[in-house]
Every structure is written in structure tokens, then in C-alpha cells.
Amino acid sequence: MADNDKKENGSDSASSTNSQRKKDNAADKKQTSTSSSSSAPASPASEPKGKTTAAASSPSRTDKSASKQRTAKPATKPASTGGLWFVLILTLLLTLALAGAGYWYYMQRDSNNQALTDAQTQQSERIEAMNQQNRELQQQLAELGQARQSLNQAISELQDKTQTLQQQNQQALAQLDNMEGKRPSDWLLAEADYLVRMAGRKVWLEKDIKTAIMLLSNADERLSELADPSVLPVRERIAKDIQMLRQLNPVSRTSVALAISGMLSQVETLPLDTFEQPADGSNEEDLSESVDDWQANLKRVWRNIVDDFISVTRTETAVEPVMSRQEQWLNREQLKLQMMQAQSAAIGGNKTLYDQSLQNAMDILVKKYDMDAAPVQQYLEALQNLVETDISQNLPESLDSAEPLRRLLDKRVDDAFGQGARAL
User: Are residues 202 and 212 in contact, defined by beta-carbon separation less than 8 angstroms?
Assistant: First the structure.
């Protein structure tokens, strides 16, 4: 486009130059015509015939005016050349200005086009992002719609269940209102059944006989408060169960295990049967300070010197090696092991393992420990008491009063509330 503008500007300048030249030529022709018209009255046709002198002198005037025109015409050429240069320079400046304006317009339009393209690209990206968000929102709306539908379905199901429960509740209330032979004391029967079942758990799970007997006694008291002859067979069976449990071994295995645990902590303090250097029983006689006893003093000194060189000790017992520190530790650990086995057997009710472990502990105590020490003797007496303790218990497989009491309670409930009471 700039090249086209330059070409148009060049053609405009050329045409302006040609028009200027034509104007200059027209001015020259006009000046020539003016000079010729000014000399025309002096022609012979216009003057009278009598003036011959003027007619004779007219050629000379015409020649003079022509020579003046010739001399005046070269004088106007420098002026027309300067104007031409001025016009050319002005045209060139205008051309350059037009070219710069065209270039600036072209660059401005190019930058505007680039900015417009970038803006269109950004707008397209924004539109695409908005479309993506719109699709995501539509998907979320669809999911929400499905969730709402599921929620409505769940709500309808819950309403149906609530309505059903309300109907059942109304039926139960109606049965309670219309119930005949209502006896609030029957709750004592349910409490007695609970106490009997708890007594069975104490017997079989915790091996706690005393607590089981106490629970059965409480159950019998609850049944006695009913003042109902129909519960007498159940009370009789409860009495048999109490008597049977009282005949069992009342020894608490937990108490035996705790006693053995206390004895385990005393093993480290028991003295072992180790070698001890005997004390020197020789009584050295003091020397006399009297000068007269010099002979006796000399004998005593000689005897002391000889006794230090030679020492003879007589023993009639068998010689045993000295017990090392490792052997001492091993003997204590063996005694601890036997005591821990006895403790585990007492908790599990294993009478055979219990007696065997205590007997092994007594053997280790007699062989490896100092039996003359009082702590060892007391420890041995405690082991003897544990051996004499009977930890065996023949527990019953079930309580005779549990099943009849449960049947009686079910019968009372069925009679009072109907067959659907247990389903509720």
C-alpha cells in the first residue's frame, strides 16, 4: 500500500510539474501577444494616408519593441526556475510526509489487527471455558437430580416404615389397653431370670462360686416376693443349685495365683548353700610383760610362727565344689520357673501340673538353698501349704433352675401380651 501511495504521489508531482510548465508557456505567449497588440495601432492600416512619416517610422518601432521583448524574455527565466525548484522540494516533502503517514497508518492498522486477533483469541478461550463450566454445571445438576430422586425414594421408604411402625405401636398400645389379667409383679420374674443367667456366667466364665451363690440367693428372694405358688418348683431348683455350688471346693484360684506371685518376688532374697570361709578359732595368747616370763614368751612366739607356716584342718563331710555366680543365677531361675508353672496351673485348674511344679520347687529349695536360714524354712512351709491346697473344682455343666425359669417367663409373657409380644 505504501508503494502505491508513493506511485500516486510521484504521478501527482509529475502532473503538477507539467501543469506548471504549461502555465509558464502560456504566460510567455500571453506577454508576446500583449506586446504585439500594443504595436498594432501603429500599423499602416490604422493611420491616415497623409502621415507617411509615421508609417515610415513604424517598422523601426516594431523592431525596437521586438528587441525589447527578446531582451526582457531571458530575464524572466531565472524566476520561473526558482519557483520550479520550490515546487519540486515542496512536492518531495509532501511526498515524504504522505509516505510516512502511509507507513504509520499501515503499522498502526497492522498492530490493531494483531490486537484484534489476540482479543478474539482470548474471547474464544473464555467462551470455551464458559462452555466447559456450563457442561460441568449441567453434569452436576444431573447428578444432583439423581441424588434428589434417590433421596426422595429413601424418604418415601422411611415414611412407609414409619407408618408401619406407628401402626404396630398403635396395635401394641391397643393390646396393652385391652390386656386382661395384667400383673406388674411379673417383672420380678424377669429379674430373677436375669440373676440366674448371670450366676451361670460367673460359674463357667469367671469360676467365681461365691458370687454365683449370692446371685442365686437374690433370684430366690425375687421369686419369693411374687407370693405365687406356680414358682415354687423353680425356687426348689434354685435351692438345689445353691446347695450344689456350696459343696464345690471354695478355694479361689485367683487367690492361690496371687499368693504364688508374692512368693516369686522373694526368690532373690533366699540365701543359697554356698561355701563360706570358716572363722579362725585359734586364740593367740598375749605375751607377758614380766621379765621373769621370758621363757614362756619365747615359746609363745615360736608357736605362733610355726602355726602360720603349717595349718591342718580335719573334716569328715564330702568335699563339694564351690558354687559359681552363674550356677547361683541358674538355681534361682529354676526355682522361679517352677513357681510360675504352678501359678499358671492354678489359674487353669490343672491339679497335676500344679502339684508337680510345687514339688520340683521344694526339691530345688532343699538341695540348693541354705536350710539352716530362717527365710528358707519359712519359704518351704509356704510351699507345703500350697501343695496341701486343693484347686480342683468339678463345675456343673448347667444350672437346673435356668431352663424352668425361662419357660415360666415365656409362658407369662405369652399369656399377658399374646404370641406377637416376643417379636416386638
Answer: yes
